[in-house]
Amino acid sequence: MQTQPDDMLKPSAPPITMVPLYDYAPTATTGPIPKKKPKPCLKVICCILLIIIVLITVFLFFTLYLFKKREVQITANNASLEDLSFTITPITLNLVLGITIGIKNPNYAGFNYESTNTTILYHGLQAGVSPMQAGTVKARSSKTIHNTIYIMATTIINSPFLLPEMIAGKLPLSSITSMVGKVVLFNNIKIHATVDTSCDIVVDLQSRTMTSSCNGKVKIS
Predict the structure, then answer these.
(1) Nearest to 201 by CA among 211, 215, 187
(2) Any residues with CB less than 8 A from the CB of 16 and at least 6 apart, and which?
(3) How far is the C-alpha of 124 from the C-alpha of 107, rounded, in Å?
(4) pLDDT, tens digit (0-9, with 9 covering 90-100), for 136-186
(5) Which of 25, 82, 125, 165 is the least buried, fewest Cβ under 10 Å from its Cβ?
(6) Is the pTM of this model over 0.90?
C-alpha cells in the first residue's frame, strides 16, 4: 500500500493581508471650524496704546502751536499836530501833540501791559509827559492807543536853542514810550514783552504842520 507525503495531506494556508497600523481616512465635519477668541489682555494693551498716542498728539499740538511764543507786534506808530500857537516877542508857545501806537497780539491769550508814560524831549530836556493807563490787548487781536501830550513851554523857555529855532520856523522834538507787559497762557506759561517806541518830530511853525519818523521794537523774554 502506497503512502502519500505529509506535505500533500496538509491544507494550504490562506493568504496574508497587510493591515495598516493607522487609518488616515478623513472624517466628515458637521460645520465651520470655530475661530479662537482674542485674549482679553490684548484688547487692554491696544486701548492703552491708543490712549497714549492721543495724549502725545494733544501734547504736541498745545506745545508746538498754542503754547508757542509769538512776538507782540507794533502795527502803527505815528505823531500828529493837534494844536499850535506861539509868539516870539515875548516868547510863548502852546503846542499839543498826539502820539498813536498800534499793537497786535498774535498769541492765544491777552497781552496785559502796565501803566506807563509817553515823554516828549526837546534837545534832551523833558518838554511834556502824558500818562498811559494799563490795559489789555485781547488774544489774536489789535489795539490802537492814542496819547495827547501838552508841551510845557516853561520847562524849555530858557533853552538857548528855542529862540533861534522859533525864528527859523523849525522846532525839533522827540517822543519816547516804553510799555512793559506779559502774556499768560492757562495761568502757567508767561511771555514777558517790552514794547519800545520812539519818534523824531519836526514842527513847522510857519505852515503849522508837522513831520515825524517813528520806530518801534519789541523784546520777548
Answers:
(1) 211
(2) none
(3) 37
(4) 999 889 999 999 999 988 899 989 999 999 999 999 999 999 999 998 776
(5) 25
(6) no
